[in-house]
Write a structure and sequence with these properties.
Cofactor: Zn(2+)
CATH class of the largest domain: Alpha Beta
Largest sheet: 7 strands, mixed
CATH topology of the largest domain: Quinone Oxidoreductase, Chain A, domain 1
CATH superfamily of the largest domain: Medium-chain alcohol dehydrogenases, catalytic domain
Keywords: Metal-binding, NAD, Oxidoreductase, Zinc
Enzyme class: oxidoreductase
Helix content: 10-25%
Strand content: 15-25%
Organism: Turnera subulata
Structural class: alpha/beta
Number of domains: 2
Subunit structure: Homodimer.
CATH architecture of the largest domain: Alpha-Beta Complex
Radius of gyration: 21 Å
Length: about 400
């Protein structure tokens, strides 16, 4: 397991200390390496990672599926919970010892985007797969023992003992969780916030409404929990892996469709089950064909499709403009529409009250040294979220 070099989480890190799971090229195994982690500069924070988990976005970056993600060597990872080790000049809202959740879609609070109620993007710190260095000086805070840079990932880089982030990309947890609850907060960095937020903030699911969720990974299951919490009467889960149906039931799903069970298109089956189509569909796969089925599964006149899955293919939307004249709509969402620093603390409190089941989404727990095994579990479809102990 990655060594803990501090006598306590409130200690200070030597500039040349730290271990991380470093990947040196697409599809290359992760290597646990000794690295340098520089002190935080102006408006930056250095944190000790306590727990981190693996998302399909990490898997896609590891595979090199997107040319924008080709900066190597790199420290991947963007779901985590940690504690502040030190802060740079100008940081006021965070202090040493604070429990924090990294967010890949930051919030500076000052730009025209952050001040707008119409978006959760930030002008400077929005999600950007092209970005592999810090905003302050265009350099990395990670390096090998002999001084060669190791690149950042999605404003976060959490597969490491220590990480340096812009303060705009950290959310303070205004709660006092015990150890078992704290590790569950890891999922607020991406999966749960994205899925639940899509149901609450983007679709605005109402009591008695109907929902179809395409792709029953952690994000799709989180969307189901969000729809259930809002009182949806029918939640249809669509997936080619029937093993996911059992956990889908625990997350609020009422019906299931396996596309392999019938030659009839999924959207026709959904329409038959719902007298014309669902009110909301969620595409959580990142596949153009699945997106079209999700779109056609909604009811004409008012049906709304929310795109959550990341689409690495250059293929454009599989829609004809005239299909939108029937009243159906389609929209994409980043981070479930949440303004991270402003709104995520309330979601954390809802989780503490038991509104959402985070623990049920953690299918495996492993030490960081077993990260390659964890990636294989996700790649094989055997894991929802694998929590890594740092």
């Amino acid at each position: 397991m990655i060594k803990r070099r501090l006598s306590s989480i409130h200690g200070h890190l030597n500039d040349d200390d730290g271990e991380a799971a470093v990947v040196r090229g697409p599809n290359q195994p992760f290597l646990i390496e000794q690295i340098r982690v520089d002190p935080p500069q102006k408006m930056e924070v250095r944190i000790k990672i306590l727990y981190t988990s693996i998302c399909h976005t990490d898997l896609s970056a590891w595979k090199g599926e997107n040319e924008a993600q080709q900066a190597f060597p790199r420290i991947l990872g963007h779901e985590a919970v940690g504690v502040v080790e030190s802060v740079g000049e100008g940081v006021r809202e965070l202090k040493e010892g604070d429990h924090v959740v990294p967010i890949f879609n930051g919030e500076c609070g000052e730009c025209v985007y952050c001040k707008s109620q119409g978006t959760n993007l930030c002008e400077t710190f929005r999600v950007n797969p092209l970005k592999s260095v810090m905003q302050n000086d265009g350099k990395s805070r990670f390096s090998t023992k002999d001084g060669h840079p190791i690149f950042h990932f999605l404003n976060t880089s959490t597969f490491t003992e220590y990480s340096v982030l812009d303060s705009a990309c950290l959310v303070k947890l205004h709660i006092h969780p015990d150890a078992s609850t704290l590790k569950n907060m890891t999922l607020l960095s991406c999966g749960v916030s994205t899925g639940v937020g899509a149901a609450w903030n983007v679709a605005n699911v109402q009591p008695g409404s109907s929902v179809a969720i395409f792709g029953l990974g952690a994000v799709g299951l989180a969307a189901s929990q969000g729809a259930r919490a809002r009182g949806a009467s029918k939640i249809i889960g669509v997936d080619r892996n029937p093993d996911k149906f059992l956990i889908g039931k625990t997350m609020g799903m009422t019906d299931f469709i396996n596309p392999k069970d019938s030659p009839k298109p999924v959207h026709e089956r959904v329409r038959e089950m719902t007298n014309g189509g669902v009110d909301h569909s969620f595409e959580c796969v990142g596949d153009a064909g699945v997106l079209r089925e999700a779109f056609l599964s909604t009811h004409d006149g008012w049906g709304k499709t929310i795109i959550i899955g990341v689409h690495p293919s250059p293929q454009t939307l599989p829609l004809h403009p005239m299909e939108l004249f029937d009243g159906r709509s389609i929209i994409g969402t980043t981070f479930g529409g949440y303004k991270g620093k402003t709104q995520l603390p309330d979601l954390a409190k809802a989780c503490m009250r038991g509104v959402l089941n985070l623990e049920g989404l953690i299918s495996h727990e492993l030490p960081m040294e077993n990260i390659n095994e964890a990636f294989q579990l996700l790649k094989d479809g055997k894991a929802l979220r694998c929590l890594l102990h740092v």
